[in-house]
């Protein structure tokens, strides 16, 4: 029996939380039953391209809406779907603009059109005239044109599909417990790289204004006045990285802030930390917070991030971005000594909350075959 062919639209598919979720699906799904191709709006090689091609999947370039306009985009995507198919399903990972992909899929004759929301806000539409009306129209089109509604959590589901929509399937941003676990040895040996570090703070996110890395740099500047030998590790890349690098130089923090770029070994990254901080302006359900807890790392997050990411291990505390830096520093001090090394306890918490990758694969498989 031939595998079910599914076409993914995962955004840029370079690095970030959505990409992590997409790759967890791709790596763990039964490839005898499902064949997955990827459509990406870029003309350069991404971080995961070679890996997915190694399994016989295709990475297909599509235009960016902002470069060609909505009508030309829909026509191009419709043509690409027909040329590379036939596909039994399309799986769109987006907030609002994915609706144009769903429309193109409908016009291309795709019967199963899955819309998967990963966030609780969309800064890309804030500069559009009358954004509230635009958002209302787009949300209505998403619900009309999609056959299956998926979201990473309740708040993300409510944001796009409406309060308590019973047709939404919640699929948690899960992770592979065989890879993410606490490794005291990695923590102990971190001083080979960071000899003078008493506290190592980490952040892993795409460099955009929403992820708010500049807040972290300012926080480190104030924190370093009170405590020596604090290091901030920033993993990821993106449009605001250069601006953040300039800010680091302006504050004289070149020896205290390390820009790591996109990294492949995330468990190794987390296990070197005393604390993970995510001060995002908004999030859906950040997989980084689940990953950090899986490695036993305490986390401080902005209160705009959904509480659904707290595994109940006493490793997550939130604070308002409007709160004083003094309060943030006090929380950093309190949380940085709360590492958890009991992997059995951690694994049970992750499984009980439904963040085990096996549960995610069961749910997404049922959506594909429904």
Mean pLDDT: 92
Provide the helix percentage: 25-40%
Order of helices and strands: EHEHEHHEHEHEHEHEHEHEHEHEEHHH
- Gross morphology: globular
Low-confidence stretches: none
SSE map:
Layout: E1 4-9, H1 17-28, E2 34-40, H2 49-54, E3 59-61, H3 65-68, H4 70-84, E4 89-94, H5 99-107, E5 112-117, H6 131-145, E6 148-151, H7 154-161, E7 168-170, H8 184-189, E8 199-204, H9 213-226, E9 230-235, H10 241-250, E10 257-261, H11 266-271, E11 275-278, H12 287-294, E12 299-302, E13 316-319, H13 325-335, H14 343-352, H15 357-369
Parallel strand pairs: 1-2, 1-4, 2-3, 4-5, 5-6, 6-7, 8-9, 8-11, 9-10, 11-12, 12-13
Describe the overall structure.
A seven-stranded parallel beta sheet has the order 3-2-1-4-5-6-7, sandwiched between helices. A six-stranded parallel beta sheet has the order 10-9-8-11-12-13, with helices on both faces. The model has no long low-confidence stretch (mean pLDDT 92). It has 370 residues and is of the alpha/beta class. Strand 5 (112-117), helix 6 and strand 6 (148-151) form a beta-alpha-beta unit. The chain has 15 helices and 13 strands. The radius of gyration is 21 Å and the shape is globular. Helices cover 40% and strands 17% of the residues. It has helices at residues 17-28, 49-54, 65-68, 70-84, 99-107, 131-145, 154-161, 184-189, 213-226, 241-250, 266-271, 287-294, 325-335, 343-352, 357-369; strands at 4-9, 34-40, 59-61, 89-94, 112-117, 148-151, 168-170, 199-204, 230-235, 257-261, 275-278, 299-302, 316-319.
